[in-house]
Amino acid sequence: MRNNPKSQVCFWQGNEACAEASIIAGCRFFAGYPITPASEIAEYLSKRLPQVGGIAIQMEDELASIGAVVGASWAGAKAMTATSGPGFDLMQETIGWAFMTETPCVIVDIQRLGPSTGQATKCGQGDVMQARWGTHGDYSAIVLSPNSVQEMFELTIKAFNLAEKYRTPVILLADEITAHMRENIILPPLKTVEIIDRKKPKPNENAFFGHEEIPPMPSVGEGYNVAVTGSTHNEYGMRFTADPLVHRQLVERLNNKIQNHANEIAEVETSNINDCKVGIVTFGCASRAIYEAAEEAEAKGIKVGYVRLKTIWPFPEKPVKKLAEAAEKIIVPEINLKQIFYEVQRVVNGSAEVVPLNKIGGGELITPEELLEKISGEP
Amino acid sequence: MSGTFSMHKYLRDLPLPFCPGCGGLTVMSEFLRAVYELGHESLSKFVFCSGIGCSSWIPSPHFMADSVHTLHGRSIPVATGIKLLRPDLNVVVFGGDGDIVGIGLSHFVHAARRNVDILVIMVNNMVYGMTGGQVAPTTPFKTKTTTTPYGSFENPLDATKLAVAAGACYVARWTTAHPKELKEAIEKAIGIKGFRFIEAISQCPTAFGRRVGFKDAGEMVKWFRENAIPVKQTEGLSEEDLVGKIIVGEFIQRQRLTLEETLYGVIEEAKKEIGKNRN
Asked: Does residue A3 belong to the interface with chain B, where contact is any CB pair within 8 Å?
């Protein structure tokens, strides 16, 4: 374990920052399958985790990887896997199982250009809706989106904390650019980093799947005789595969424990949201253009405000609504074909014009010039 | 061990999930009898993983123990994750033939190759029973099922042979017509280290037997008994001689380093290395 008493400047790759952050967050189990552009996380953790007594293993596929992660979590470990689009597809069923069984774990999706094999080494942001709706049935996802190496570090720790706090899988939705670029990052003194651990049951407790909004979680091998199942179950883990009330209570609680805390989970970076002519809502690598574009627009006399989503799901409605009250139009830059755009349109609900700005192919980003053009254009 | 065996000692007070005549009950009771005869007063040293299918309901949630009911085909990777974290626990997987060597086949082969120290008990009823009797990778050639109304036109998979080839440390096959042998194999397997595989050929009178002309479960068990041939007696017999036969017995017992042993060895080395760098 790193033991820096003071802040320390490191020059890291995004994937490296994610891997090192996971160890600081307490991750002691990693299972993965090689895939561009996420492999560096597996490589880094294969070297680092054993040094801190942790386990890193390459499984036979992504189905096995996330299966082992969920198993390890029930054995008491903080656990993570890392993948990209095609592997993320394969993990969806087990993400649903982890949601249903309230298993804390972190799934890192380093987005690349799909659909299918697409452009496997190039950047994309096409998994935004998959991260929200990828598994079947009614569920809620917590999805975080870093836009720098510093945030690969910070949001990885946050992903573990949210997973443990809400007892649910959390997705770190990064992208090839953020994962592969190298930047200076400031590693905080370790004792200042907040680490959250799952709530454990008291000796005679047995309602591990109900009663409370977020029930305590035992591990296997602790003597609790815990019955874990992805079938509809009551608060004691007993299957009820036909009872309408048990299903309603369970699935509504599982969704509410996230949706009722959307404001606490939501993290955004904002600028001028109370006073601007043009607004921007964006996230991840696409948001790298906003700083320069906003500065240049301001030099031309157009005041720009923005909401940069660090939490994508649950969608941070409040700041976006606020922005829409001030701005005449809101631009939504994305490296996909309008995935967050419609969500912004829903939340803005007519109080500002919502303008898409999309670009896909070859890993090209939206440039500050392209964004500036949209900002200056007639509404 | 005091008193006489009652499997209810190890079960939650729930109605059992089996259809009348299901072989799953035999596998459940012989497993628990083995546990009892090994002297376990409870299942506290065990963790059970299962997938989706009738036999996955043997442990979950019926066993008074930790049980993890996973997705279809994924019990072995989940068991692997648990075992790596808790090498001290006996991790046992129950699954059907569809679960273990259909949808989950790749995990089965790789777990045997890695030699993860778990016991996999596959209840092979030769059909997808829970979904109504569709053809399985284990269904005998030419058998009529709901998705092979003209008879199966594929060759079945021999899971036991595959487990031996993939590196398992203990492999046995018995049928529900051999409860004593099945129990003894389970007892033995629990005491051995490494990947262990027991195939229990089992009757599904509901979705298989009645469609292929068996009057009841008893007739199916009789079919197993009459067609079983001990593996030791198969020497010199041709494939043709063995058509329609069920080869039973122990297929292999060997020692290999387990995944936990090798992986924890790596951890010790890595810790030493980082210790050296610090000095």
From this structure: no
Cβ contact A270:A305 at 8 Å: yes
Residue B136's domain comprises: 13-278
Bridge partners (DSSP) listed for residue A79: A29
> What is the spatial distance between Cα A166 and Cα A144, in angstroms, rounded to a whole number?
14
What is the identity of the amino acid at B70?
A: T
B163-192: per-residue pLDDT in tens?
999 999 999 999 999 999 999 999 999 999
Inter-chain touch B85–A29, beta carbons under 8 Å? yes
Q: From chain B, pick out residues whose CB is under 8 angstroms from the CB of A31.
A: 77, 81
Query: Which domains are seen in chain A, by residue range?
Result: 8-192 (3.40.50.970), 268-376 (3.40.50.920)
| Mean pLDDT, chain A, integer | 97
**Residue at token pair 């049935």:** A137
Separation in Å, CA A298 to CA A180, A292, B31: 31, 10, 75
- Cα A210 from Cα A237, distance rounded (Å): 9
| A 159-198 residues with CB < 8 A to B | none
The CATH number of whichever domain residue B123 belongs to comes to: 3.40.50.970
- As beta bridge partners, residue B171 has B197, B252
DSSP A140: -
ipTM of this complex: 0.97
3-state SS assignment for residue B135 = strand
Q: What percent of chain A has pLDDT over 70?
A: 99
d(CA B122, CA B93): 8
Which residue of chain A has the CA closest to B65? A225
CB A288 within 8 A of CB A127: no
Domains identified in chain B, total number: 1
- pLDDT tens digit string along B203-261? 999 999 999 999 999 999 999 999 999 999 999 999 999 999 999 999 999 999 999 99
Q: Identify which of B94, B44, B88, B99 has the alpha carbon closest to the alpha carbon of residue B66.
A: B44
User: Is B5 part of a structural domain of the chain?
Assistant: no
Within 8 A of B273 by CB-CB distance, chain A residues are 51
Residue A262 has pLDDT above 50, yes or no: yes
Q: What is the DSSP letter of B99?
A: I
pLDDT (0 to 100) of residue A379: 44
In Å, how far are B53, B54, B123, B137, B204 from B25, measured between CA atoms? 14, 11, 11, 23, 11
User: CA-CA distance, A354 to A146, in Å (whole number)?
Assistant: 23
> Alpha helices of chain A — where are they, by DSSP H?
14-25, 39-51, 62-74, 85-100, 128-133, 149-166, 176-180, 244-259, 262-265, 290-299, 317-326, 341-348, 368-376
pLDDT beyond 90 at A377: no
In 3D space, the residue among B200, B171, B87 whose CA is nearest the CA of residue A76 turns out to be B87
B266 with A31: Cβ contact below 8 A = no
How far is A136 from A158, CA to CA, in rounded Å? Answer: 26
B200 inside domain: yes
* Token pair belonging to B241: 């001689």
The set of residues, in sequence order, having a beta carbon less than 8 Å from that of B149 and lying 6+ positions away, is: none
Three-state secondary structure call for residue B230: strand
> What are the residues whose beta carbons fall under 8 Å from the beta carbon of B23, sequence distance 6 or more?
B123, B125, B176, B200, B201, B202, B203, B204, B217, B220, B221
**C-beta atoms of A64 and B106 within 8 A:** yes
Contact between A32 and A82 under an 8 Å Cβ cutoff? The reply is: yes
Question: Which among A29, A50, A59 has the least Cβ separation from residue B266?
Answer: A50
What predicted TM-score, i.e. pTM, was given to this entire model?
0.97
- Report the C-alpha gap between A218 and A106 in whole angstroms: 18
Tell me, yes or no, whether B4 lies in a domain: no
